[in-house]
């Protein structure tokens, strides 16, 4: 078998982050008397994405991101004197309770973990990601969890991937493969670390251009590639 280590993203790879984000936003909207409509949720997601892009470029920190996204969200609505800290804390709390797996995630991890170690490498908040995994049946298949908040750099920087290989005793990057749903973070991080990569599209058509070594619409397709000789 060509691989001895699977580096695996979390959000929209093994956990359904789309539904988790929607549930957390709805909870915040209900508690702080904000509209819960899709238009406003789309605005929040755009602002949140902007701040995560800044984090990936090293232009902000996880701690600042938590507050700045809600501060900008309130400013965009013209709302003053909002309790930004309380909003942020509650959002993170609710998000940590969301651990709905992507279709086929448990079968994928069960199958792959029989043949190699599985280490999660994720951009996110440590408290959220560890809490979600702690209450999930997927945890039994995972060797370790590395979260960007606990490192100097987020993906696409290769730091977490290289550290995961070190933890697993893998000295040759060719023995590791990274799977994730994001071309700009997961696939680029794999390229930067010198590992193979799988872009998981969650059933969407494959992109016209990708730097991934393999594109999988389902986790079964991903497992077939990862476990092939």
Domain count = 2
Oligomer state equals: single chain
Q: Sheet bearing the most strands, described?
A: 6 strands, parallel
CATH class of the largest domain: Alpha Beta
What fold name goes in the CATH topology slot of the largest domain? Rossmann fold
Describe, in plain words, how this protein is organized in 3D.
The chain is of the alpha/beta class and 229 residues long. It folds into 2 domains: 5-16 and 100-226, Rossmann fold; 18-95, Orthogonal Bundle (DNA polymerase, domain 1). The protein is built from 9 helices and 6 strands; from the N terminus they run βαααααβαβαβαββα. The chain has a 6-stranded parallel beta sheet, sandwiched between helices. α2 packs antiparallel against α3 and α3 (62-76) crosses α4 (84-95).
Q: Helix and strand layout, with pairings?
A:
Layout: E1 5-8, H1 17-31, H2 38-56, H3 62-76, H4 84-95, H5 105-113, E2 117-122, H6 126-134, E3 144-147, H7 159-167, E4 176-180, H8 183-193, E5 196-200, E6 214-216, H9 219-226
Parallel strand pairs: 1-2, 1-4, 2-3, 4-5, 5-6
């Amino acid at each position: 078998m060509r691989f001895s280590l699977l580096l695996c993203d979390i959000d929209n790879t093994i956990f359904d982050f789309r539904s988790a984000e929607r549930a957390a936003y709805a909870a915040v909207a209900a508690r702080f008397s904000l509209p819960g409509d899709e238009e406003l949720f789309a605005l929040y997601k755009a602002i949140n994405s902007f701040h995560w892009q800044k984090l990936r470029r090293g232009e902000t920190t996880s701690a600042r991101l938590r507050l700045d996204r809600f501060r900008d969200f309130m400013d965009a609505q013209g709302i003053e004197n909002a309790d930004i800290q309380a909003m942020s804390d509650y959002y993170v709390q609710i998000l940590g309770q969301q651990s709905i797996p992507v279709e086929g995630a448990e079968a994928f991890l069960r199958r792959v973990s029989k043949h190699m170690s599985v280490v999660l490498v994720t951009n996110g908040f440590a408290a959220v990601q560890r809490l979600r995994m702690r209450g999930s049946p997927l945890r039994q298949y995972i060797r370790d969890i590395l979260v960007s908040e606990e490192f100097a750099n987020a993906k696409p920087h290769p730091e977490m991937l290289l550290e995961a290989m070190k933890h697993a005793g893998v000295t040759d990057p060719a023995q590791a493969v990274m799977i994730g749903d994001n071309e700009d973070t997961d696939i680029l991080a794999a390229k930067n670390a010198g590992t193979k990569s799988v872009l998981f599209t969650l059933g969407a058509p494959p992109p016209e251009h990708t730097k991934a070594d393999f594109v999988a619409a389902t986790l079964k397709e991903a497992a077939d590639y990862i476990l092939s000789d």
